[in-house]
Specification:
Elements (H helix, E strand, L loop, with lengths): L1 E5 L4 H4 L7 E10 L2 H12 L12 E3 L27 H6 L4 E4 L5 H10 L2 E4 L5 H5 L2 E8 L8 E15 L6 H12 L2
Parallel strand pairs: 1-2, 2-3, 3-4, 4-5
Antiparallel strand pairs: 2-7, 5-7, 6-7
EC number: 4.2.1.2
Protein name: Fumarate hydratase class I, aerobic
GO molecular function: fumarate hydratase activity
Length: 185
Amino acid sequence: MQYELTTPCTAADLAPLKAGDTVLLSGVVYTARDQAHKRMLEALDKGEKLPFDLEGSAIYYVGPTPERPGEVIGSAGPTTSGRMDAMSPRLLDLGNKIMIGKGKRDAAVKEAVVRSGAVYLAALGGAGALMAQSVKTLEVIAWPDLGCEAVRRLTVEKMPLTVILDAHGGDLYTSGPAAYLKTVK
């Protein structure tokens, strides 16, 4: 199935999604990679406010390249999501609803996705220019000293994504190969 979603999203918005579905995502998406996640957790530990409201948020694990003249963003392909696994459950428990990246996630993230009614979506790795076409505006909102890993607020339009982990425990990295193997026997 294909769905069109606009952020911010609630658990009810995400409940119909199943691993393997396609999502065209519009609205605000925040960028945050390893170092930004580390700073967010440090801020939470100190009781400080985060640079954006986690409730219903979408976080894209990307460190975009510099934009060329006339472009909003440079290449914006996903980074490996597993690097955020130790930090993601806490953010999910605090209201983050959509994670966007590439690659498998650990058991703690999968449990947090189900517990919080969230999803993990995959962006097409190796197609950073394609992903960049969905970005309509960009603003650095926190930690510019991190360079490409600074937190950015993107406005996206119909960003093409695939559901990897759904809120019901579905995992495309498990169900996809199993479905394929049934077809070749």
